[in-house]
Amino acid sequence: MLKVIKFSATWCGPCKALAPVLNEVKGEHPGVTFEDVDVDQNRDYATQFGISSVPTVIVMKNGSEVHRFSGVKPKNVINSIINQYK
Known about the structure:
The chain is of the alpha+beta class.
């Protein structure tokens, strides 16, 4: 099972730029779970993953982290990352 977790914050400009890109990606991967985590509302969860900057996206496969990136990436790059672990 593949899961994509986006750590972001309401005050974060790059997070707002990444949101529509991830929404498009989500539509192209119906078998993948996508989760949005606001670091200000879920500090413990963000700390558990060692989040130090937002946006940070973590790809989990079968409960283990397999990929992580920070900042805004183009849709084709994110699709490529997801396809790598499907």
